[in-house]
Amino acid sequence: MHNRVVDYSRGKGLGGTSLINFALWNRGSRDDWDQFARRVGSREFEWENVGRVFDGIEGFKDPAYADDGIKQYVRIEREIPGEKGLVSVEYARHVDDYLLGLMKGVVEHGFGINRDLNSGDPIGVGFAPATSKDGVRVTARTYLQDVPANLTISSGVQVARLLFDGKKAVGVLGIDGQKRKLW
Questions:
Q1: Same domain, yes or no: 110 and 21
Q2: pTM reported for the whole predicted model
Q3: pLDDT tens across 87-120, in order?
C-alpha cells in the first residue's frame, strides 16, 4: 500500500456501523434471495417470503410527500410496502440540484431509471430510501425502546467471539480477555 492510510471506519455503538453509514434501506435482489434459498435448501429465504419479513420490519412512509424534483424518479413498484414496522423507512423529501442533474444525464445517456430499488429488480439508477424518520437517522434504539427481559446490553465491549453451551450462545469473550455471560 506504499504507506498509505486507508480509513476503515466502524460504528462502535448500539446498531454498529449503521451509526455512521448512509443508512440506506435495501432489500436486495429477488434473484439473489432465490439463489440463496436454493443453496441452503429452504424456501423461507425465497424473495416472496423474505419480502413479507421486510414488510413487517418497515415503517414505510409513502414518497408522495417528496418535492417535485425527486417524485419523477421514485415510485413504489411493490403492491403493499410495510407500513407498521418499527424501522422507519423513507425517501428524502428534497435532493440537491446536482443529483437531479445527474439523473437527467443518466436518462440522456440511455441508462435506465429504477424508481423502486427495493422491488427485487436492482437494475437501473435510482434513489434509495433510508432508515430515517422525518429526515433523522434511526438506529438500533428503534428495537431497544422496550428491552426484552431476555436481552442483556453491555456497551463498551469489543467482542472477540461468542461463547457457547452446546449449540446455544450464552455469552461473549471480549478482546480484553474477559468472559461475559449474557444469558
A1: yes
A2: 0.72
A3: 889 988 888 889 999 999 999 999 999 999 999 9
Output the nine-digit C-alpha cell for 80: 403493499
Assess whether 81 and 117 both reside in one domain. Answer: yes
Are residues 117 and 26 in contact, defined by beta-carbon separation less than 8 angstroms?
Answer: yes
Residues linked to residue 162 through DSSP beta bridges, in sequence order: 172
Q: Are 56 and 82 in contact (CB under 8 A)?
A: yes
**Pair 109, 129 in one domain:** yes
Structure-block grid coordinates of residue 18: 449503521
In this structure, what C-alpha cell is assigned to residue 116?
423502486
Do residues 163 and 179 make contact, with C-beta atoms less than 8 angstroms apart?
A: yes
Claim to verify: residue 142 and residue 91 sit in the same structural domain: yes
* Each residue's pLDDT tens digit, 41-54: 999 999 999 999 99
| C-alpha distances out from residue 64 to 57, 59, 75, 93, 105, Å | 21, 15, 9, 9, 24
- For the chain, how many structural domains are there in total? 2
| Domain of residue 156, residue span | 147-183
